């Protein structure tokens, strides 16, 4: 398994997974995703174009990352008006915090669909489509 990440303007990060997303690799993906969020990513796009296989450990990792983004968004929503104002002036508010999946192959997409992931995680055919959706 190989991971690459890119931090794009406007607090967007893309984490690309190459190989299997399973019990042997989920820890690396979780740590890298958490680090991108800690460094300021408001939108984490997981590029699954080169992901050949996803196990239940991969599904658990997606759920954990999604819950992390949701908790951070809720905390921002619940913050006092003064705090939200300071964050807005500092330029750290923008897109709502979210996890997006892009480019899942048919076998991986089938696993995601069987697990019900599309009910709460947005999915797009590729990274450019995900980025375009953010702008609309």
Structural write-up:
- There is one protein chain.
- The chain has helices spanning about 25-40, 55-80, 80-90, 105-115, 125-135, and strands at about 1-10, 10-20, 45-55, 100, 120-125.
- Helix 1 packs parallel to helix 2 (about 55-80).
- By secondary structure, it is an alpha/beta fold.
- It starts with a strand and ends with a helix.
- It has one domain (about 1-135): STAS domain (Transcription Regulator spoIIAA, 2-Layer Sandwich).
- A five-stranded mixed β-sheet has the order 1-2-3-4-5.
- The chain is built from five helices and five strands.
Shape: elongated
**Estimated share of beta-strand residues:** 25-35%
Give me the CATH fold name: Transcription Regulator spoIIAA
Side by side, the strands of the main sheet go 1-2-3-4-5
Name given to the CATH architecture:
2-Layer Sandwich
Count of DSSP H/I helices: 5
CATH superfamily: STAS domain
What is the residue-averaged pLDDT? 92
Q: In CATH, what is the class?
A: Alpha Beta
């Amino acid at each position: 398994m190989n991971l690459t990440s890119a931090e794009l303007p406007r607090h967007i990060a893309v984490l690309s997974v190459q190989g299997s997303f399973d019990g042997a690799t989920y820890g690396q993906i979780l740590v890298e995703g958490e680090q991108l969020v800690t460094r300021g990513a408001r939108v984490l796009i997981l590029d699954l174009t080169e992901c050949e296989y996803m196990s239940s450990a991969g599904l658990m990792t997606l759920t954990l990352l999604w819950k992390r983004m949701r908790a951070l968004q809720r905390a921002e929503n619940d913050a006092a008006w003064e705090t939200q104002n300071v964050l807005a002036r500092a330029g750290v508010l923008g897109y709502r915090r979210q996890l997006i999946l892009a480019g899942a192959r048919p076998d991986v997409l089938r696993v995601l669909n069987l697990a019900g992931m599309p009910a709460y995680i947005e999915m797009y055919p590729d990274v450019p489509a995900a980025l375009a959706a953010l702008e609309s």
